[in-house]
Write a structure and sequence with these properties.
about 45% helix, six-stranded parallel sheet, globular, Rossmann fold
């Protein structure tokens, strides 16, 4: 059996739930040291450091003049992408644009009767860096990452959107990535990967100017690099392994549940595939479906390891308990394979994205539904949100006083300033009498 069902009240079940509630992971000391060294070398060595790392890990004969994707490479990419993929990209782009357009915030002003004007000015950042992982040496291009990160930045009004992705051993970028980027208006693309790409975006090099926001998925080195440059730039989030939690009642289809758990498990051995059922019979049927479907996957070995080392199949007393546990776990993806998902939706407080009903697989959200698939992991959905247009804007407060309004507030300003021991603050208000 691929997964063994555990009752939530059993000793093993309680231990598993405790681990899930406390699953946030930081990089180990060795990773932190390596990333710190990489950032320092890129900050000091610029393009030369990028070329050195790229030769060592990606393309042995890489040269500095190859860092920027050339106009010829951009044009050639279209000849190597078929019409069916182009049509699929157009549909995905349309859906993602339609969803994220609704996230745009407007500047606003509030005027009081005494003449004071306050408000908020919303502006995009000047530049955003989009990191796209290589995907098995470029053989599995993550075009969805290009769209999910690039489109909200464009809607926000970011004037300069930069994409970085590692080259394949020949120093090339998969044409599907180049076409996806161009279809959403991105043509400034550089060949650099891992932590050195993040360092280049944060600090700039001779070829790659620095940006204000860095977004995009990656391995532990990318994640740690983003953590270390956060503060100098904004980052989207500190992401961990991808995860799904499926709540299944008597109405669930075991085959669908198993397929969605396997879709999660095939990401990598650290992926977290979780299911909470409300009866033992359903749990047993799901476990059997997993065992049947697993050998059919191309990445069966990865999925098997993920399920063995991290998979979760729990049996709760009822949906009340299952929903309460879902809120405690705060999963990246939460699937409600239950009879009345919309009736239970108001009870869901913490999840990166919520998928309602048995015909709504996570893969629909990953690629085509429209909402962003860059989501909080490791329980951070308790306080974090999906990437969106707001990731690429900043907000400035606006304040304007008339003389009469300041005189009316002067005594209160001085009182609070003196209470805090800041007599200079008090004087700056008093002097305007």
């Amino acid at each position: 059996m691929t997964l063994t069902p555990l009752a939530t009240t059993s000793e093993a079940g309680r231990a598993q739930l405790a681990a899930l509630r406390d699953r946030f992971q930081s990089a180990d000391d060795n990773c932190r040291r390596q990333v710190s060294e990489i950032i320092a070398r890129v900050r000091g060595g610029g393009d030369a450091a990028l070329v050195e790392y790229t030769r060592r890990f990606d393309a042995p004969d890489f040269r500095a003049e190859q860092l920027a994707v050339s106009p010829a490479e951009l044009q050639e990419a279209y000849a190597r992408v078929d019409d069916e993929l182009r049509a699929t990209l157009e549909l995905a782009i349309e859906r993602i644009y339609e969803f994220h357009e609704r996230e745009k915030e407007q500047s606003w002003l509030l005027t009081r009767e005494d003449g004071v004007i306050t408000g908020r000015l919303v502006n995009p950042v000047d530049a955003a860096g989009l990191y796209v992982p290589g995907g098995q040496g470029g053989s599995t291009p993550l075009v969805s990452s290009v769209l999910m990160n690039g489109i909200p930045a464009g809607i926000a009004g970011v004037q300069r959107r930069v994409m970085l992705t590692p080259p394949n051993p020949e120093g090339k970028v998969n044409p599907a990535l180049l076409v996806a980027a161009q279809e959403i208006g991105i043509s400034e693309i550089y060949k650099a990967g891992s932590a050195w790409a993040i360092a280049a975006l944060a600090y700039g090099t001779e070829t790659i100017p620095a940006v204000d926001v860095i977004v995009g998925p990656g391995n532990q080195y990318v994640t740690e690099a983003k953590r270390q440059v956060a503060g100098r730039v904004r980052i989207d989030m500190i992401a961990g392994p991808s995860e799904v939690l499926i709540l299944a009642d008597h109405s669930a289809e075991p085959d669908y549940v198993a397929a969605d758990l396997l879709a999660q498990a095939e990401h990598d051995p650290q992926a977290l595939a979780m299911c909470i059922c409300v009866d033992e019979e359903m749990a047993a049927r799901i476990a059997a479906a997993l065992a049947e479907q697993l050998p059919q996957l191309e990445r069966a070995e990865i999925a098997a390891r993920s399920l063995k080392e991290r998979g979760v199949l729990l049996v709760a007393a009822d949906l009340d308990e299952a929903v309460a546990l879902a809120n405690q776990i705060a999963a990246e993806h939460l699937e409600l394979m239950i009879a009345e998902p919309f009736a239970w939706l108001p009870r869901i407080r913490h999840a990166g994205a919520i998928f309602l009903g048995k015909y709504t697989p996570e893969s629909a959200g990953d690629y085509l539904a429209g909402p962003n698939h860059v989501l909080p992991t490791m329980g951070t959905a308790r306080f974090s949100s999906a990437l969106g247009v707001e990731t690429f804007v900043k907000k400035s407060s606006l304040i304007s006083y008339s003389r009469e309004a300041l005189l009316a507030d002067q005594a209160d300003i001085q009182r609070l300033a003196r209470l805090e021991g800041l007599t200079g603050h008090a004087r700056s208000a008093a002097i305007r009498r």
